[in-house]
Backbone:
């Protein structure tokens, strides 16, 4: 059976041969048909399962034979005298085309190499015309081209890194082979020899900048297949640097030079082929070049690559896990090879401790426990270092942590090869447990060691519960990383928090340094807090705590440590939920939370764990407002655990200090009577959440509103507003003061929505004198940008019209809701609508929770339903993150009683679901 490459060449020979005397410009239809037919054949071959590299080579072959046939035909149609007068020439492929790795819609770059005089724009040589005139475009190709002599090539190669790289991997398509060989040797002699170190350093700098630009992690939700960590460029970069170092051009060359094993060569080759195949499918799916594997494209790419599970989420999970595993292989092996070949400076990931040990000791060579400590690295003293004592597999990382060292690449490779030693006996060895727990107990220097353990495979082998999380996709809207990467980032955040010592994290640093006696429990809790996600069971916090109990028993933790570990993991979502969704002014709410944590030790651990987990979930997920809520819950719970009297006294002291701070900020015309009345008219929760600056802003707003009541020229019922931009936090803030009235919250939310604004969060307060002080955190709905002047004025106009009944908000919002939302869920990732009633967590109100996909008009629809059904909203806690809305309302009947009757709750839920469904997508 003929190979596809041979078939393409044979087809070109047969179908592209022109009759004598016919110019190619008369046969553009023939060339277009060939290109269309052959590229479709390659696509079908890809869809049948052909490897990524094979498809890229086939795509390059189609262009090779087409361009060569075209040049041959032009030559035949050109007068012989003109042909013979032309200089020697060659058509050279550069870039990805030069490597013979042409993805379906990738750029096509060529160079006309010749040895003649400079090319004139008026009378170019005959061989340039076919690819620079209209003929090539008529065929359906867009070609990037340059025309150079050998001196030109040398000049441009010396100018920039990209040009030099493209010329050293250039490939002859057709033409004078001797001329091409001369160019290759000249560029190597004049632009490579003697410049190896400079080139490699430039490549490393470029690589670091590229990785930082595209996320600096392999396991991102939307990886860049070409430029991201573990992407195609990492592999290519390695070969480029290897070529400069010792003229290696392939994995086979690296194998011959002893830099990689046969297994590593196979792993790298398979991983690179897989990524090329993925990128081929991305191009075919998009119908254009595509480098980012977006969430919306992932389901179709997975399906077309043969992932056929019935469940869309499982299909997606399996495909993305395969992608991450292959990208991780490229990242880890290429990084090790770069170190092995001395292409990288020796890493200093454990630098702080290293610096403490001093430069003199760094220069010494020591042999301890079967390992040599040479400069900044650990090396094996013998080939049998791990076989002699398998426990050294763990101890080597403790040595690294103690001395601020890294594993030499050879030692890391040896460790990976000896992973079969991690058996049941190893996992039961108390000496191994002791070394592992000691690693976790070194606050501030745990994360890099644990990451190194994970990268070598030891962590997953020792803790299979964690090993199952490797490259596991998380379907939650918020998560930026795979489960294992999220966990490792949690540890990095905890390390950073333990050393921060200043705003905004200084308070947490103090907790870690002064209040937590056994930090190893906290690190272990973070390591296992998502362990059950691999089981796909509901309530992963509860199931992860059960896994943690099993791990604690195997590690032989004492009863107290085991109980604390299990409770931390079981409650690891609770502190966020309570602080952001519950009324922190309700002592019963604090009491219930305090009963769950039981003691101050658990509270301290859980607070820090909650912050580290949140910071590691996604960039920008945490903000100052959430931090205030978390610290409020922490302080009130701490005081309640200490005793009710102390709790009340602390609250009074805090209120007095806040009043003094506000008085100091008030302008000269701010009277003390007005300040005292404001403090007396609002619930304690207001003063827990609001900073002195916020309270001053509300006081001034209320003052403006009261002045309106005294004015004969203004409508006393009209609200007053104040806006503030928060560019660092990514939203605008609008405060509204007006008289309380039925349905007010719904009208405010509706006016904001109708003005084209997206509500991220809201805080509502009503003073005892009936003045409402509501604050909304908003962005422009379509762009997510700060609110501009036109939108502010539109909202204020709509609000006035709404409160006077002069406008139908519902119809206006329905028209706006047809716009696509900022966040588009992909197949298998729809967030179901959940409505919950809670009559036990508050003595005064029914807590109504609504979780659903965010969409324009959602808050208005919910609040309108509640208003129409005679449900009073006492408190609303609005939380919108990346397309998910989690809104909590403290509600009651109009007579102040809780919503008790089941049929009443069912009716409210039905109306809410119907209203949300009408919003559509």
Residues:
């Amino acid at each position: 059976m003929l190979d596809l490459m041979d078939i393409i060449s044979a087809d070109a020979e047969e179908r592209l041969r022109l009759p004598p005397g016919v110019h190619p410009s008369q046969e553009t239809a023939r060339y277009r048909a060939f290109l269309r037919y052959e590229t479709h054949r390659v696509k079908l071959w890809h869809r049948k399962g052909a490897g990524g590299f094979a498809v890229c080579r086939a795509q390059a072959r189609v262009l090779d034979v087409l361009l060569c046939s075209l040049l041959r035909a032009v030559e035949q149609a050109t007068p012989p005298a003109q042909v013979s007068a032309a200089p020697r020439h060659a058509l050279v492929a550069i870039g990805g085309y030069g490597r013979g790795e042409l993805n379906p819609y990738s750029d096509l770059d060529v160079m006309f190499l010749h040895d003649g005089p400079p090319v004139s724009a008026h009378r170019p040589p005959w061989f340039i015309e076919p690819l620079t005139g209209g003929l090539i475009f008529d065929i359906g190709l867009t070609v990037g081209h340059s025309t150079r002599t050998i001196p030109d090539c040398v000049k441009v190669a010396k100018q920039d890194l990209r040009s030099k790289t493209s010329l050293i991997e250039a490939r002859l398509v057709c033409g004078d082979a001797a001329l091409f060989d001369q160019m290759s040797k000249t560029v190597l002699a004049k632009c490579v020899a003697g410049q190896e170190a400079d080139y490699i350093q430039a490549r490393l700098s470029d690589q670091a900048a590229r990785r930082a630009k595209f996320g600096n992690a392999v396991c991102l939700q939307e990886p860049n297949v070409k430029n991201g960590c573990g992407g195609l460029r990492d592999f290519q970069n390695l070969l480029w640097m290897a070529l400069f170092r010792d003229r290696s051009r392939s994995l086979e060359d690296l194998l011959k030079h002893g830099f990689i094993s046969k297994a590593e060569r196979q792993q790298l080759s398979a991983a690179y082929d897989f990524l090329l195949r993925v990128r081929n499918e991305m191009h075919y799916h998009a119908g254009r070049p595509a480098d980012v594997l977006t969430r919306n494209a992932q389901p179709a790419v997975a399906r077309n690559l043969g992932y056929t599970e019935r469940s869309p989420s499982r299909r997606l999970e399996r495909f993305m896990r395969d992608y991450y595993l292959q990208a991780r292989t490229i990242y880890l092996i290429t990084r090790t090879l770069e170190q092995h070949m001395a292409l990288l400076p020796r890493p200093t990931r454990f630098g702080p401790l290293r610096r403490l040990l001093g430069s003199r000791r760094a220069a010494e060579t020591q042999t301890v426990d079967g390992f040599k400590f040479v400069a900044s690295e650990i090396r094996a003293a013998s080939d049998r270092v791990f076989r002699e004592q398998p426990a050294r597999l763990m101890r080597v990382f403790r040595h690294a942590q103690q001395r601020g060292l890294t594993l030499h690449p050879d030692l890391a490779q040896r460790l990976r090869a000896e992973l079969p030693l991690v058996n049941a006996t190893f996992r039961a060895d108390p000496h191994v447990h002791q070394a592992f727990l000691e690693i976790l107990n070194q606050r501030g220097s745990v994360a890099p060691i644990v990451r190194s353990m994970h990268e070598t495979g030891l962590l997953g082998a020792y803790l299979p519960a964690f090993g199952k999380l490797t490259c596991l996709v998380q379907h939650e809207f918020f998560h930026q990383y795979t489960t294992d990467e999220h966990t490792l980032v949690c540890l990095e955040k905890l390390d950073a928090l333990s050393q921060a010592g200043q705003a905004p994290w200084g308070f947490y640093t103090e907790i870690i340094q002064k209040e937590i006696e056994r930090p190893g429990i906290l690190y272990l809790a973070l390591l296992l807090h998502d362990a059950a996600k691999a089981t796909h069971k509901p309530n992963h916090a509860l199931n992860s705590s059960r896994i943690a109990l099993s791990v604690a028993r195997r590690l032989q933790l004492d009863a107290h440590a085991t109980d604390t570990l299990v409770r931390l993991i079981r409650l690891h979502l609770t502190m966020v939920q309570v602080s952001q969704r519950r009324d922190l002014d309700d002592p019963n709410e604090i009491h219930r939370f305090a009963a769950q944590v039981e003691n101050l030790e658990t509270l301290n651990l859980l607070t820090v764990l909650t912050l580290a987990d949140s910071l590691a979930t996604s960039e920008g997920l945490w903000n100052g407002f959430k931090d205030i809520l978390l610290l409020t819950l922490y302080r009130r719970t701490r005081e309640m655990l200490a005793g009710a009297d102390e709790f009340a006294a602390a609250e009074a002291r805090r209120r007095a200090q806040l009043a003094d701070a506000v008085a100091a900020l008030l302008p000269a015309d701010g009277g003390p009577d007005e300040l005292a009345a404001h403090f007396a008219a609002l619930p304690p929760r207001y003063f827990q959440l609001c900073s002195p600056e916020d309270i001053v802003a509300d006081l001034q707003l209320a003052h403006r509103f009261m002045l309106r009541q005294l004015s004969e020229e203004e409508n006393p019922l009209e609200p007053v507003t104040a806006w503030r931009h928060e560019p660092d936090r990514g939203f605008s803030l609008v405060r509204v003061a007006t008289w309380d009235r039925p349905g007010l919250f719904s009208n405010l939310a509706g006016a904001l929505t109708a003005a084209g604004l997206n509500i991220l969060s809201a805080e509502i307060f009503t003073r005892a004198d009936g003045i409402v002080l509501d604050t909304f955190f908003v962005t422009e709905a379509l762009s997510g940008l700060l609110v501009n002047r036109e939108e502010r004025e539109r909202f204020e106009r709509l609000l006035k019209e709404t409160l006077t009944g002069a406008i139908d908000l519902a119809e206006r919002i329905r028209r706006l809701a047809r716009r696509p939302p900022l966040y588009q869920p992909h197949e298998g990732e729809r967030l179901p609508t959940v409505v919950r009633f809670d009559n036990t967590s508050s003595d005064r109100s029914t807590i109504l929770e609504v979780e659903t996909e965010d969409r324009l008009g959602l808050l208005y629809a919910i609040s309108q339903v509640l208003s129409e059904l005679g449900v009073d909203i006492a408190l609303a806690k609005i939380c919108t993150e990346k397309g998910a809305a989690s809104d909590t309302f403290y509600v009651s009947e109009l007579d102040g009683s809780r919503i008790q009757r089941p049929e009443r709750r069912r009716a409210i839920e039905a109306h809410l679901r119907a209203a949300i469904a009408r919003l559509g997508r």
About this structure: The CA atoms of residues 568 and 606 lie 6 Å apart. Residues 345-363 have pLDDT under 50 and may be disordered. The first strand starts at residue 89 and ends at 94. Residues 197-340 form a domain with the Four Helix Bundle (Hemerythrin (Met), subunit A) fold (CATH 1.20.120.330).
